Amino acid sequence: MNAELKLFALGTVGVTLVLAALLVTVYGAETGRVLQALAARTPLLLSGSPDFSRFEGGFAANIVISIWAMAIAAVAGTALGVGMISQSFLIRTPSVLVMNVLRNSPWLVVLYAMLYLLPFEIEAFGSVFSFSPMIKAIIGLALPVTANVAEVFRGGVEAVPTGQWESARSLGYRRLQILRRVVVPQAIQFMTPNLMTTYAMLFIGTSLVVVTGADDVLSVARTVIASDGAHYATAIYLYVLFLFFIFCFPIAILTRWLEQRVRVRQ
Amino acid sequence: MTDHQQSAPLIEMRDVHKSFGSTAVLKGVSLSVRDGGVVCIIGPSGSGKSTILRCINGLMTIDKGTIRVGSFAVETLKSDKQLVPLRHQVAMVFQQYNLFPHRTVLQNLTMAPVQVLGENPAAVRERALALLAKVRLTGKQHAYPGELSGGQQQRVAIARALAMQPKVILFDEVTAALDPEMVSEVLNVIRDLAREGMTCVLVTHEMRFAQEVADEVFFTDRGVIVEHGPPATIFQNPTDPRLKAFLDKVL
User: Fold this and answer.
1) Measured on CA atoms in the order B206, B207, B212, B213, is the torsion positive or negative?
2) Rounded to a whole number, what is the distance in Å from the CA of A183 to chain B's nearest CA?
3) Residues in domain ABC transmembrane type-1 (chain A) (predicted)?
4) Touching check for A180 and chain B: CB below 8 Å?
5) pLDDT over threshold 50, residue B1
6) CA pair distance B198, B196, nearest whole angstrom
7) How far is B98 from B105, CA to CA, in rounded Å?
8) What is the domain range of residue A197?
9) What's the angle, vertex CA B150, arms to CA B144 and CA B153, rounded to 5?
10) Quick check: A116 pLDDT over 90?
């Protein structure tokens, strides 16, 4: 962990300094005033409310969207991954097809498609469900990530030696039981780093949800620029970049550490 | 011994054919094993020995012929679900041990009886501990397979097979991956089992061991059984020239 901690400290300080230097370069003597303006807008950018009273917008919305999208993609991607390694041609072929379609769809296109594919609301079981921009954003991001999770699942399962399947079968285990009891518990160590990378990618991708009209950090940033003036645009976008970096960088470091640990254990 | 030999065979393969793609691996194999019998299959590598074992417990489907194990017609069992009762009766031990590395020794033994056969966990645990004592691994129940030597792992694998309370155990070159000094500890366990009347089918390169424990030896070459008979005949008076050539090389 030590090497990774060093890298983490170095990266955090380094990137912060680079962004600060950019800020100074652009704003010169005005930097102090710009920083004050950024501080004043921080609650809005982080939580979508001017005083941290709610956490429904801004950067908090990006986090919420990423967590829900990842949770949905984890469940759906595992199911799709099981389908992709099925022995039955009738299950395997459509699964592989769906995975390839989803994986090769540009995220932004899927998000735009959500605007038109999902109705504003649907009536089911006697109650009305409405698709808020937030829900459209979650579903739109979960779809391509599902394909990534399915690929990670398949790769992890294939990394487990075939002798494990053979001995489990000879003990009377059936296919799904083997996956659940024998193969997946061993494959998780191979899957975890890849799943974390997928999540970091998804988190960066939440910056695209602005097109669905969700109240994410980028849409708040645009509102702030509209009200405070285009003069602050550079500073605000640098600030948003910094927020994304601070969230994703630790994930990347943790991923590296886990990968190293898996390699050592083998 | 004599009344064993009169009973109906426990395993009977007739004219079994198996190909992988265009490569024919088994070209009409017939053999039978009586209840309590110890059979060794010897032959050059690639002659189909391991395939014979994998066909007996349904790990591989066959193209032609019949395989009967007890009351099961193996070639008619298609799904894993149908094969469960067969696998309860026919256990297998592999060259590479294939223990479950994420589970302790004890859990390796108890998993399948509890999860597949639905037996009482406390009773299975009791039995598993007795089996570990039998393979001389008392005290290792909480170790993980990765912490054991090859010989110890293979003995755990034998105990795991026994935990299913099978009628037959198939041994697929179980000493081939072991360091020489660990071979005898594994063979001793198998010898004990054979003496206790467990039906055993061994694919092996340990000719002296085959000679000692087997009551029948089958010699395979290029997908057929070339010669079979009691070990004394096979090893001392072989008739087939291929068997003679093979024994010249390995003995």
Assistant:
1) positive
2) 9
3) 59-255
4) no
5) no
6) 6
7) 12
8) 58-214
9) 45
10) no
Q: Are residues A10 and A140 in the same domain?
A: no
Q: How far is B251 from chain A (nearest CA, A)?
A: 30
pLDDT tens, A179-202?
Answer: 999 999 999 999 999 999 999 999
pTM: 0.88
Q: How far apart are the first and last CA of chain A?
A: 18
Residue after which a domain boundary falls, among A197, A214, A231 = A214
Say yes or no: A180 and A210 in one domain.
yes
Residue B68: pLDDT over 80: yes
User: Mind listing the pLDDT tens digit for each residue in B192-201?
Assistant: 999 999 999 9
Q: Are residues A38 and A162 in the same domain?
A: no
User: In terms of domains, do A161 and A35 share one?
Assistant: no
Tally the domains of chain A. Answer: 2
ipTM of the modeled complex: 0.91
B116–A166: do the CB atoms touch at under 8 Å? no
Domain positions in chain B are 11-100+166-248
A21, A108: one domain:
no
* Min Cα–Cα distance to chain A from B229, Å: 29
Are B115 and A181 in contact (CB < 8 Å)?
A: yes
Indicate whether A171 and A45 sit together in one domain.
Answer: no
Measure the CA–CA gap between B116 and B132, rounded to whole angstroms. Answer: 20
Contact (CB<8Å) B88/A182: no
CATH architecture type of domain B11-100+166-248: 3-Layer(aba) Sandwich (3.40)
Q: Give residue-wise pLDDT tens across range A13-30.
A: 999 999 999 999 999 999
Q: Say whether residue B160 is in contact with chain A using an 8 A CB cutoff.
A: yes
Q: What tokens does B215 get?
A: 């009551």
| Whether A181 and B88 lie within 8 Å, measured CB to CB | no
CA angle in degrees (0–180, nearest 5) for B100-B106-B111: 60
